[in-house]
Amino acid sequence: MPRAGLSPTGVVDAALALIDEQGLEALTLSAVAGRTGVATPSLYKHVRNIGELRTLIAQRVMEEMTDLVGTAVMGRGGPEAVIALMRVWRRYAVEHPFRYAAMPPAPLTDPALAEAGGRLLEVVLAVLRGCGLDGGAAVHTARCLRAAVHGFAVLEVAGGFGLSEDLDTSYRLLEKTIVDGLLPAEND
């Protein structure tokens, strides 16, 4: 009989709290069990193993990002929506670096993550459709957009920008570079 009040959602909540505080490498079933006040074997009533827990965490992260990105771009179009997407993506990665690290690089290739990853991708592609991009052009642009935002945010979190110039100014330059370089000109 599962502990009253504990559920797969509660286990994921506890795991995310652990990750937020101690990093992804601290994630073990024993540590999550300690957080939830149960013995480790009791977690198996809620998750099959650490692999399933990692999958549930990745799903939650992608759901959080989809909600945040969707909200940020709502009512916006064109370059304004792209910049809103870029800003919220960076903010999530910087404010939740360990959660962000739990998102696998290729979620669409994992059947357990494809649905959540697909929803996030669909929001990105919808933003790009609003910029006149569709099909292969949208996919290529989405890849470049993801690489740019991910790379900047990961380097920022790791302290990879040690010079004194303002990071937000650098990021605005990245936004301008993406908008000017990847999106079709408005007069084309």
Query: Can you name the CATH architecture of the largest domain?
Result: Orthogonal Bundle
CATH hierarchy, class of the largest domain: Mainly Alpha
Question: What portion of residues is helical?
Answer: 55-70%
> Which oligomeric state applies?
single chain
* Cα Rg: 19 Å
Largest sheet: none
Mean pLDDT: 94
Look up the CATH topology of the largest domain.
Tetracycline Repressor, domain 2
H and E order: HHHHHHHHH
What does it look like?
The protein is mainly α. It has two domains: 1-47, Homeodomain-like (Arc Repressor Mutant, subunit A, Orthogonal Bundle); 57-182, Tetracycline Repressor, domain 2. Helices cover 69% and strands 0% of the residues. The protein has helices at residues 8-22, 29-36, 40-43, 50-73, 78-95, 97-101, 114-129, 135-157, 167-182. The protein is globular, with a radius of gyration of 19 Å.
List the helices and strands and how they pair.
Elements: H1 8-22, H2 29-36, H3 40-43, H4 50-73, H5 78-95, H6 97-101, H7 114-129, H8 135-157, H9 167-182
Helix pairs in contact: 1-2, 1-4, 4-5, 4-7, 5-8, 7-8, 8-9
Pfam families: TetR_C_33 (PF13305), TetR_N (PF00440)
DNA-binding region: 28-47
Protein name: TetR family transcriptional regulator
Please give a handful of descriptors for the protein shown.
69% helix; 188 residues; Arc Repressor Mutant, subunit A; Tetracycline Repressor, domain 2; mainly alpha; 2 domains; 9 helices
In short:
The protein has nine helices and no strands. It is mainly α and 188 residues long. The chain has two domains: 1-47, Homeodomain-like (Arc Repressor Mutant, subunit A); 57-182, Tetracycline Repressor, domain 2, CATH 1.10.357.
